[in-house]
Structure prediction request, 600 residues.
Amino acid sequence: MHPDRSSVWASAGVVLVVLLVACRSQDASPLVPSAATGQVAESPASATLAIDKQKHIWEIEHAAFELEQKFGKALSRALQQRDTDEIRGFCRPGFEASLPSSGERVRYDLGYVQEDRLDALDNPPASHDAAEFASYLQTYFSDFDKIEKITCRVLDLHVDNNDPETGYWDVTLYLAGVGKDRQQGFVEFTSEHLLRCYFTDDKAIENGVILDRWLVRSEAHRHSARPLFEEVTEHVGLDQVDVQDNWTAERDKVRQYHTQLAAADFDRDGFHDIALASASGRWRLLRSIGGEKFEEVNDEVGLPAWADEEPRSRSVRDQAYLATWIDIDNDGFPDLLLGDRLYRNHEGLRFEDVTDTSGLVFGYNPRGCVVADYDGDGRLDLYVLYQHPPTANREGTPGWVGDDQTGLENHLWRNAGDGRFANTTNDANAGGGKRQSFAASWFHANDDHYPDLYIANDFGTNVLLINQGNGKFRDGSDEAGVSDYATSMGVATGDLTGDGRPEIYVANMFSKMGRRIIAHVAHEDYPEGIFQQIQGSCAGNRLYVASDGESRYREISEGSGVNTVGWAYAPAMADFDADGQLDIYSTTGFLSFERSKPDG
Prediction:
């Protein structure tokens, strides 16, 4: 096959470069393709795959791209149109399909969702011809009145004898669909299939007659008579809040991280309100009016609408945009950290700037902060997260993976009472190292009643700080087994299993393409330690459950179905369906430029 490498670059982005050419974080910068040629410019200090293996992976990734773009779209179209003749047309002479029977499905009642699940590999299915195969695929839509979307993706791809010229390929295919039933309830299916295909070039894929065998690996059918959530942004007036909108901004004005918000009932009327801080836009306090509308009340309660009353003198990158509620004086009214200023809440009626007397000082561009009473003295404390120091103070160039050296330590601020805070980072051993911290969560990793802290770091290893109850922390990451992957951009903790011990759910990047590539490389293809690091660049979200022994965990994300989220950020745990059990909400996506084409 002769791949068009420009088309592969268009679909792959940076993930392929990271995996083909992994860099040492201390002394090398990431390798990127030339804008003009698409070729990779090598760095002397990089850990680069052998050229023949790079070429082999290019070939395989090109085949995956062509399968998704040509065969996958043709199959999706045939299913959308319920065209069994076209589906049969994908099958070569002698085609065989291994299809399960409907009696092998197991039904689960998940509250507002009912699910039928089947793992066909547990029971060897019977063999069927092309006509029976085409009819079987149509049963996926037997409950559909309207098909809204069909997804077809290549999860894994291998070629006979590592030689594309043989023409025989083994493919793992993901097939899914969503839509409405005749009563306008919600229906969906997800499935995985093992395919044996034959094609020797792109034209053969385009012609579509490529299937020798098809085996159904697993299926899940879900139905809900009602939605769990309803979009009400416009109804409550939040669509009028003029925050940075990357959908409408000019390309050179698009920002990755720009705005933070936090919710609390600042006036204790029973409805949560929203505080919002922006790197270059307005600061806002949005009061909830009976849970039906939001109105800005900055002037009414004495909060500034801008970081500076005078025109901005700081750049966007220098501007702090923290938004955090913390009751600093235990009066029951949450106080507000907005931007880099601390405001005391006077009984929900007005706010007073107490930054100068609080002792709080914020460094360069803090990423966020989390609140807990870490020392058990009855007063809430602050943990502030940082990533990059100012460029002038940076030591080394950030690497793609395994970078524990070029970031900045976080800060622990102890609430000393009377509205004053003291920086106890060094005394408490709470900095977390020079990593690039993205998020953190206080929780109880053991039973000593002092909150411990999990820190999710981008590009570097994650950190679990165990609170020793004497005002100090120790690094328990290795013994707990919760810092095995990089590229973490969020974390949530909570008791998902109901055993009284909280789980840790970490947001990481997941890439189907990255998983395909990793299947074709191994430890021996890289210098010591590099392969384990690059696994983190497409590891997906990780769920750690408490295991035997204090502060020890085991990882169960793939078996739990919470791994393949995408480019994930900011997960949250809450009981969304009021069944007494915590659920997980996990956001995904990076910088999409069109609403109809999300990148996550």
Q: What stands out?
A: Confidence is low (pLDDT under 50) at residues 1-14, 23-45, 309-317. The CA atoms of residues 2 and 201 lie 7 Å apart.
